Amino acid sequence: MTLLAHARYCDEILAQTDRLGALVEGADLTRRVPSCPGWNLRELVVHVGGAHRWAGEMVRGRAAEELPEDQVPGIEGPAGEDAAALVGWLTAGAAATVDALRAAGPDTEVWTWAWERRAAFWARRMAHETAVHRADAALATGTAYDVAPGLAADTITEWLQIVAFAQAQGDPEAAELRGGGRSLHLHATDVPGAEWLIEFGEDGFTWRHAHEKATVALRGPLTELMLAFNRRQKPDEGGLEVLGDRGLLDFWLERSSFG
């Protein structure tokens, strides 16, 4: 499975935002979000919309360092509990961010917190940020969730890259993802080629696309696999199957949560 095009990520930011907005408009904004303990729907939307505006402002200004949130206009969202106003703020921010990303193009240099300093990083990150948090809103409202296979697969790939980066940077949780001779296989049964093999070494872990026997395998539909890997549902829900050492899968999930 390969990276999507910059234009596709931009399109997905808009599409995922529209679908998130549709879930929230007319809903009780005080409804709790079970997959994000401590948040209600309003707080979830403000988090997503604030992330859009923060990333968009850095791309627009070609930031050479991290931009403080208090320098991002409108990041706090509208006051009150008017769902329509909140959705309008959300979609306006996403549109402005996509305009900035499209104007910049994928290769424009800009600050990021990660392994690459290009606008392409923010297009991809915001697409996945929005898609995964749309799942949170769907769970909170009891609504069915689906996502395109290419985006779902790349969400898994990006998260593996983030966890690997965190381990390289010395994150204490990610640092524990080591130990030779063990492996974790993710296998989507409905999308050819959507497989990942995570191998634990003495100095850390590595991953690659492969179909090989592992210490533990998590297999099932790709969307459900993505949700479980992002800790939005349990590994034995949604038609998923755990084969082998369930403890190793739990070990991974617990140490790749970052709080």
TrEMBL record:
<feature type="domain" description="MDMPI C-terminal">
    <location>
        <begin position="151"/>
        <end position="250"/>
    </location>
</feature>
<feature type="domain" description="Mycothiol-dependent maleylpyruvate isomerase metal-binding">
    <location>
        <begin position="12"/>
        <end position="138"/>
    </location>
</feature>
<dbReference type="GO" id="GO:0016853">
    <property type="term" value="F:isomerase activity"/>
</dbReference>
<dbReference type="InterPro" id="IPR017517">
    <property type="entry name" value="Maleyloyr_isom"/>
</dbReference>
<dbReference type="Pfam" id="PF07398">
    <property type="entry name" value="MDMPI_C"/>
</dbReference>
<dbReference type="InterPro" id="IPR024344">
    <property type="entry name" value="MDMPI_metal-binding"/>
</dbReference>
<dbReference type="Pfam" id="PF11716">
    <property type="entry name" value="MDMPI_N"/>
</dbReference>
<protein>
    <submittedName>
        <fullName>Maleylpyruvate isomerase family mycothiol-dependent enzyme</fullName>
    </submittedName>
</protein>
<dbReference type="InterPro" id="IPR010872">
    <property type="entry name" value="MDMPI_C-term_domain"/>
</dbReference>
<dbReference type="InterPro" id="IPR034660">
    <property type="entry name" value="DinB/YfiT-like"/>
</dbReference>
<keyword id="KW-0413">Isomerase</keyword>
